[in-house]
């Protein structure tokens, strides 16, 4: 069943993807809810702060802002696990700050965003041999650092405009500006 997805907004695409993963899990075909949310979160931080997204092979940080600050980005989709929900593990702390984003489970609205210095993340997170890293919970992060929810929501809202501009440029024979 082919479907043209080019007119959908970022949130619509994430909702569609979440529905597909939920159905595959209910059929016993997949075991996790891995989503493209981490990559979207990196784009949100990039839109907010500027700079560059580092290659996937870059150790310990995802975005470098124009001033050289190394930012690690962590995202969590939904709060079904409540405040005990865990972010993906940190395996090194060679970054300046981490931005944590929590998206609503069904709507993918940005619910929460905090920026926390590397030292504080390392201090509150317990080491887990199972993940070979430190895996902070939402409860541990929500009172640290600075609330950057409004800044990140504004940046998140720009992703649709930027993506549509890029898509229309590519489909009309143009390239990225």
Explain the overall architecture.
This protein is α+β, with helices and mostly antiparallel strands and 177 residues long. The protein has one domain: PvuII Endonuclease, Chain A (3-Layer(aba) Sandwich). The strands form two sheets. The chain has a six-stranded mixed sheet. Strand 6 and strand 7 form a beta hairpin. Helix 2 packs across helix 5. The longest helix is centred in the last third of the chain and has 23 residues. The protein starts with 9 loop residues before the first helix and ends in a 6-residue tail after the last helix.
Shape: globular
Instruction: Describe the largest sheet.
Output: 6 strands, mixed
Give average pLDDT, whole number: 85
Radius of gyration over alpha carbons?
17 Å
| Unreliably modeled segments | none
**Which quaternary structure do these chains form?**
single chain
- Ends apart, CA distance between termini: 33 Å
How would you classify the helix and strand content by structural class?
A: alpha+beta
What's the architecture, going by CATH? 3-Layer(aba) Sandwich
Helices and strands, in order, run as: HHEEEEEHEEHEH
User: Strand-residue fraction?
Assistant: 15-25%
- Total helices: the number is 5
CATH C-level class is Alpha Beta
Q: Fraction of residues in helices?
A: 25-40%
Widest β-sheet, arrangement of strands = 1-2-3-4-5-8
Number of domains: 1
The CATH topology, please? PvuII Endonuclease, Chain A
Number of beta-strand segments: 8
């Amino acid at each position: 069943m082919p479907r043209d997805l080019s007119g959908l907004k970022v949130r619509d695409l994430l909702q569609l993807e979440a529905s597909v993963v939920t159905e595959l899990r209910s059929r016993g075909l997949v075991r996790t809810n891995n989503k493209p949310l981490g990559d979207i979160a990196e784009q949100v931080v990039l839109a907010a702060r500027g700079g560059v997204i580092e290659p996937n092979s870059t150790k310990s940080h995802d975005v470098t802002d124009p001033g050289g600050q190394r930012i690690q980005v962590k995202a969590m989709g939904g709060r079904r696990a409540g405040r005990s929900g865990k972010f993906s593990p940190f395996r090194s702390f060679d970054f300046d700050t981490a931005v944590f984003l929590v998206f609503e489970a069904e709507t993918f609205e940005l619910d929460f965003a905090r920026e926390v210095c590397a030292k504080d993340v390392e201090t509150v997170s317990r080491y887990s041999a199972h993940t070979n890293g430190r895996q902070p919970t939402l409860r541990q992060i929500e009172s640290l650092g600075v609330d950057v929810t409004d800044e990140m929501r504004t940046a998140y809202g720009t992703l649709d405009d930027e993506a549509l501009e890029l898509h229309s440029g590519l489909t009309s024979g143009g390239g990225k500006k």
